[in-house]
Every structure is written in structure tokens, then in C-alpha cells.
Request: fold
Amino acid sequence: MTDTLDTRFIVKQFENYIPLSCKDKELVSSLVKPPVTYLKNTSVWHQGTSSERFYILSKGWVYAYRNMEDGTRQVLDLYVPGDIIGLREFAFRKRGSGLMTLSNAELYPFSMPQLSTLFAHSPSLCNVLFTIVARHQAILLERMVNLGRRSAREKLAHFLVELSERLRRVQRIPGNALELPVPQALLADALGLSVVHVNRTCRELKENGLVMPAGSGLTILDLEGLRKVAQFDAYYLEHDAETLSAYLRTSAEANVSPDC
Amino acid sequence: MTDTLDTRFIVKQFENYIPLSCKDKELVSSLVKPPVTYLKNTSVWHQGTSSERFYILSKGWVYAYRNMEDGTRQVLDLYVPGDIIGLREFAFRKRGSGLMTLSNAELYPFSMPQLSTLFAHSPSLCNVLFTIVARHQAILLERMVNLGRRSAREKLAHFLVELSERLRRVQRIPGNALELPVPQALLADALGLSVVHVNRTCRELKENGLVMPAGSGLTILDLEGLRKVAQFDAYYLEHDAETLSAYLRTSAEANVSPDC
DNA sequence: CGCCGCGTTGAAGAAAATCAAAGCACGTGG
DNA sequence: CCACGTGCTTTGATTTTCTTCAACGCGGCG
Reply:
């Protein structure tokens, strides 16, 4: 409750989309509460529980999954810092998926009604949030393509490239080789494959010099090579700031927001 | 441009979520333009073209697809009347998927900037639209589970049950047997299978008395049976009107909307 | 030391793809 | 009215991809 709370990280996530007015920044800041931390491999929420909160991930990696009746699991989403998590349960009573940490993690909590508050007070932020869920939907779509119409090799390559692209957008790359702390069992459940087959496919990529094992996870050695294998097209990760601004200009001829 | 334009169908789609104020209804109505019609098996838009419009489907069936470089195709979405189509390209420059009609179809067009206008003028509608995309995302997630972790048999059954559930929510069922005009090639591309395999799987279901061929498409004979095969749980199709109202109450203590 | 989580490997089997060819309904033109 | 083409379904035979089962390796840690 002290004023030492650093809201810059949160504000920055929204400003990735369009510059915010002072008022909007203050509005966002006023909703920020202290972040919560979770240890590696712990549950943030379980599937079936009530969906009152959403989060912005600030540190670490987490993933959303769905447990099936026959004991198998589908990993639905893998989140990196900056990602907003849980918006899709807006106006749902229960969560359709669980959320687990892959590493130690830090998350900023928000309540769903706060989202409605945001909508009520700032059309700009409303547009930004809509853009965010639209982009997220594009990612899910691409993952459907991956699950439905690509070979194991392509699936894996595509998944890795997407991940590193998303990381690159949120933090500077630490050199050329990128290390992803993703165990093979997780890859399997994300790609709809068996662990064994993921392992063999990893070996293939390894033998081609594209990746390298690194503890529990792997390191990308040749991003361009992977991109070629996956026929990766990053269009779906790029929102269009100009288009969004144009929408806002069109709509907001009335509301002049007092700038700082 | 005449006043004979019937906006009730459109307004109804939004009122599925919460009751709208007079002002909101008028706002929605004011954005409605005459519907456009397309013949069976024609393209509404192509992947890669600019995304200036979205639509509300009023009659017929359409589907969104993605063509792959190797000539294969993934069907991403199958829409029935009442569905809102194209929201996910909000603030994207280009469409990530094409849209084709499966039957003769009628769609009400809206422009993307109109959406921003809506946001700026009505927090309630903003909430409704957010709920709609959240629900849509839940559907995509379920489809990911389907693609990743279910057998051909289960995939097919699940797809059919989802479809009939969604239909049931939008129009009264014409008896017990429901006819779905979906060719097998489409099922294949939606489920990530080959046409041949879909055909064989259909035969299995047929032999179990669950479905029946019907022209180009099939008829559901035993919905409960299919439900069991797919282990279908409809949670993800149910938004929660009460929760949404509660959000609105919490947030809108300030803005009292003048009721009719 | 011994257990646990994760990666790795081989062998066998199942599920689904591919290839190739018919069949069948429907509409069109001769 | 029939021949013909077209789009979709159906079927069989074969091959590929991926799964399952089973086992072992290996580093970390109580």
C-alpha cells in the first residue's frame, strides 16, 4: 500500500500498443497491487476454480494446461514476462484450464471487475485490451495450424521459433544462442505428441545443429535454420500500432483526452 | 439507407449476454448497414487481405481457413448464424485466414473503427464484446485440445457435438435428428485428418448408429451417444450472465444509464 | 546410498496418411 | 432421354508417422 510500488512495468505493457495519456497511466497505476510470487512447478490456479482474477506476468515462465480424463494433458499456452494471463475467463464462472509455473515466477494480480472499470473509464485502454486479446487469438490460431497440419519436426521447430520471437520482443537477446527452460514433457503436451517422439525429434534437430540440450530444456543454436524448417511467418505476432491509432482517431473525435 | 432495415437480429445477438439500455440498442442499431449475401462456396475474404471489416452472420454457414504452403489446409472456425466473425483481426493489418461460405449466406458488415466507436460510447457493449471474444477463445482452446489429444473418433464426435450445441443455442432444433451440411473434406481439414480417414471414422459412427449420411454432410441420430464418445463437457460454451452483470454493477456505480 | 525426475534408446504395434481406383448423385448439353 | 463431367464419397492395399511398452542412464539431493 506504500507508494514505493513500481507500476512502470505494467504501464509499459500497455504502452507497447499505443502511447497512453497521463490520465490513462494513472488509471492503470491505481489498479496495480503488489506482485505475488510462486515457486517453480507450483499451481497458480486449478482448472474448474472460479475466475475472479487475471495476472500480468513480470518474471519467470508459466503455462496453461488442461488435464484430460484419461490422464493425458494438453498444454494450451506458454507465457513469458509481459504476457497477460487469464483474460479469456472474463465472464466465465470457472476456469477452463489450470496454470502452473515452469520456473520461479512473479505476477501482478488484477480482479476481473477492475477490467470492467477500465473499460468504463478509458476507451483507449479498452482498445488496447481488445488488441491484446485479438493478438492472443492469432497466436492460438497459429497453434491450431501447428497441431493440425504440421509434422512433428515442423511442430517443434515452429514452437521454438515462436517462443524465441516472443521473447525477443520483450527482452534483449543474451547473445546468439537462446536458452529455453522447457522440459520435453511440456513440449510433448503442447504439440500433441508423445514424450518419446519429442525426444527423437529433438535429436534430429540436434544432429542438424539447430538446437542443443541444456539442462532441463534446450538451447537454440540456429534460429534461421529452425525458421526454415517451420516455414515460420511472424505476421501473427505483429499488431499494427498505426491501424490502432487510426481507429482511435476515427472514434474519439469527441473525447479529447487532456495530454500531459 | 431507408428505415426499413431490420436491426433486431443484430441487437438480439448482443442481448444474449446482458440486457441493453435503450441508448445502447440505438447505438448498435445506428451502426447497422444492409446485409450482404454470398453464394455457396464463394470467398468472403482472402487470407492476406486487409482487415477493415468484421461481420455478423445472419443466415447460412461459413468457415475460416488457412492455406498452407504445401497445399494442405487447416479449417480454423466454422460459423453458424449469430456468430461474429473477424474480430480477431482487430488492429491487424492483414487477415491471417480466409473466409468461405459453406452455403448461401447473409452477413451484416461493420467496420473496425466502428468497434472503437462502440467502445468509446458504451462500456456495457464493451463488456459484451469482451465476453464474446473470451467465449470465442474458449472455443478455440477446446479445439486445440481436440487437435492435440484426442483420437480421430473422439475428434469427430466432439466436433459434431459442439456444432449441434452451438446450433441449439441459436435456433430451435427441428426434431431429434439434426442435419449438418458439412462435407467430409471440411471435417478433415478442421480436425487435422485426411479425408480418407474421416470417411472411415464416419463409417464407424454410422455402424454404431450415431450418425447417418445426408447428401453432402451428415445427420446426427444419437447426440447423447456422441457426447459420450467425445466426453463432451459444454462448460466452455456457457458464458455467465450473472458474473458479467456483477462486473458491470461494480464498475458502473458512477455512470447511471438512463433506462427506457 | 538410494530415490526421483528427466532424458535417452530399442523394439513392437497402432493410428493415420498416402496411393490408386471406383462408385454415385446431380446437373448440363447433346 | 442419355452421355458426360464434376464433386464428393467410398474402399482396398500399402507405407509412414507416431505411440506404447520397457528399460536404462544420469545428475541432484535428502
Notes: The radius of gyration of chain B is 19 Å. Residues 44 and 203 of chain B are 33 Å apart (CA to CA). The longest strand of chain B covers residues 53-59.
